[in-house]
Amino acid sequence: MQADGSGDAAAPATVTEVRNERTDTRGERAPRSERKLSQLAGCYADPHAFNAALEQGDPVIYSVSSLEPASGDGDLHIGLGMVMPGKVGAEYHLTRGHLHSWREAAEIYIGLTGNGLMLLEGQDGADAAVPLTSNSIVYVPGHTAHRTVNIGTEPLTYLGIYPAKAGHDYAAIAQNNFRQVVIEQGGQPTVLQRKDWLETLRSNLELSVKE
Ligand code: MN
Prior knowledge:
The protein is α+β, with helices and mostly antiparallel strands.
């Protein structure tokens, strides 16, 4: 901890200053893209909670710095992700999630800081929610949609390493969203089926309307 209070454990690593020997170009600071709350409409299960959160402001929910040294056959790209802590209603902050355009492409996630879960959903209906924490490694097989969720109180940071040719397909997820949601229940992160959680939200809404 530095005297000014910065430099805490939550400070993410940076992916930068990589020299690409093959093309003999100096890697530049990885371009960073940010996703604000307003850009995540439809990702969270509860639209009322989403609108209420937006009325309070439009914070950055996550960012990804992508390092793409080369894009040929056999090359790799690296993404440094950071998801901020917090919730929309009872649902923890999340990334949009995606499939790879090249569906066969797998990916390795390496947790750096924070406490997260990865939602993994195969096209065969096989769903999983696996821990993504400091020094943990998650293998995302091909044909598997993946989303990261911050269930902790500090920024969740991680590296994703994937074939340069993988590509990102967000549209397929946007249609149906993930089948699982991560909800705080009784103070604990709980993985529920989206359809069950939506049913609970509907019931709560009907009760509040009757009151
Ligand atoms: Mn990916």
